[in-house]
Amino acid sequence: MWASTRSSAHKLAAAVALGAMIAASPARGADASKAPPLPALVAELAPDARIQGAGAFRFLGMSIYDGFYWSAVRGYSIAAPFALDLVYHRDLDGARIAERSAQEIEKLGYGSPAERERWARAMKAIFPTVGKGDRLTGVNVPSRGAAFFHNGKPIGEIVEPAFAQAFFGIWLDPRTSRPDFRSRLLGES
Questions:
Q1: What is the DSSP annotation of 8-31?
Q2: Contact 70, 46 (CB under 8 A)
Q3: 165-180 per-position pLDDT tens digit
Q4: Which residues contact 34 (CB under 8 A, 6 or more apart)?
Q5: Chain segment 30-80, per-residue pLDDT in tens
Q6: Prediction pTM value
Q7: Under CATH, which number does the domain 27-185 receive?
Q8: What is the largest CA-CA distance in the chain?
Q9: Separation of alpha carbons 189 and 180, rounded Å
């Protein structure tokens, strides 16, 4: 009996370790050379933007989306226009996307509690529920804020530069919770 329990415990520990490795492993996935072209309205807001990098975002081993970073300049600068394009691999509720974004913004320390609450409400009002193959694109419009598109169509904007820095910081701030994904978006790995 003890051997069976010990064996089960080892199997469970191995499964947990494997799951942790899968969750933490860098997932290249998306290839910048296969990035879908930017929709015309997005390209107007980020003139001369070209693909800088791409990567697949995974959570607990599940593929969530492919990300593509478009900018006219190398690296990340909130002072330059750019687009962050996410192509989803699964269905996700828009309110949940907004909640998760708000949590990441708080972890990074952006904004006051009142600002973060206002931003969370605005994101919930804008972000749609997405399905497999849907595309959400956020565009940094310097000194203005962020504009959002769903499958190439405008869905709203948050006219507040501090929000744009906080929102895009989720993926592009050096303090992001996913530095591996950031590196791929910026074309560094």
A1: HHHHHHHHHHHHHHHHHS----S-
A2: yes
A3: 999 999 999 999 999 9
A4: 54
A5: 778 788 899 999 999 999 999 999 999 988 888 999 999 999 999 999 999
A6: 0.83
A7: 3.50.70.10
A8: 69
A9: 8
| Secondary structure letter of residue 80 according to DSSP | S
The alpha-helical segments, DSSP class H, found in the chain are: 2-24, 40-45, 94-108, 113-126, 161-172, 179-185
Task: List all residues 6 or more positions away from 75 whose beta carbon is below 8 Å from its beta carbon.
Answer: 186
| Cα radius of gyration rounded to whole Å, the chain | 18
The per-residue pLDDT for range 118-133, each reduced to its tens digit, is 999 999 999 999 999 9
Residue of higher predicted confidence among 25 and 70? 70
Q: Where are the domains of the chain?
A: 27-185
Mean pLDDT of 182-186: 97
CA angle 186, 133, 151 (to 5 degrees): 80
Q: What is the pLDDT, as a whole number, of residue 51?
A: 96
List % helix, strand, coil for the chain (3-state, nearest 5).
40, 25, 30
Strands 82-88 vs 62-71: parallel, antiparallel or unpaired? antiparallel
Sort 180 into a burial class: Cβ within 10 Å, 0-12 / 13-18 / 19+.
Answer: middle
Structure tokens at 131: 């399905």
Q: Facing residues of 63 across strands?
A: 58
